[in-house]
């Protein structure tokens, strides 16, 4: 009998879990960050960042394929022993808690800044914590269905960005590579930060029904994310120009402001109100895997109480700190740099180590 047979997920749920974890509020400011560093060629940095994310994701899957029923917890103990293995999982747990906190708080600040300016931030977090707990406590299968549902609900938003195309200036992209590859490469770190989240594949692999399709799943998930980022960045570049885009903190929202109907002027507010709950497809899986790590460290089967503790921690922190946009920016920088280690560097190291580990044991047997 399979270890996680009661909580298996389909390939589509696997794809949307990874994609949902990657796509968060960072997309609102990504075009500006790329334009500041790479000018009109910032969209090329997204292609390079997407390629690196696909490669790192494949390393994760290939490592998991050696022991398909093991999560990162079992893999770490198998390769490094109990002490070091548990330290690795403790680090991932702290990373997931901090990363989930930064996404959650970012969403709260958007809601408070654009929709509910007079509502206390901790009260908004309490309201969002209730559905977060109700979804996360039911396990990865329910979270997978939740992410799949919200992906379909989000598709219509992309078609809105075709409306400003009538005023687009496609000459903004010419000449391509005007200043060479150096600015493009300097913007790659900003793009790979936006792809962070696919490292949950370390934990998703044992739950996947058809594990032979895991590589296909991570490739499709990263391609979906890359296509989403690329489309929105090109839309902003074409409308504002790479120089003009730097004047807006969130150019994606500023682009939505240009869309007006006779019956509705501030259409960007409607889209933001719809999109922000969709960001829960990012923080809910991350919180679940933080609880998954803590429950495995404590050898507990039920992770529901751990999710409650983390949510209370989040509420207590926001009540005590009342973080601002500037403070949140520093938190996100820390989370992004930690994500590079956990999602890009560690998977490559672990694959090399697992290859040597298996080869050594084969020689020992013979």
TrEMBL record:
Pfam families: Spore_permease. One of its GO terms (biological process) is spore germination. GO terms for cellular component: membrane. The keyword Transmembrane applies. Its main location: membrane. InterPro entries: Spore_GerAB (IPR004761). It is a multi-pass membrane protein. The chain crosses the membrane at residues 12-30, 42-62, 83-102, 122-140, 149-165, 185-207, 219-240, 270-292, 304-322, 334-356. Keywords: Germination, Membrane, Transmembrane, Transmembrane helix, Transport. Coiled coil: none annotated. It is found in: Membrane. The keyword Transmembrane helix applies. PANTHER family: SPORE GERMINATION PROTEIN A2. Belongs to the amino acid-polyamine-organocation (APC) superfamily. Spore germination protein (SGP) (TC 2.A.3.9) family. This is Spore germination protein SB. The gene is gerSB_1.
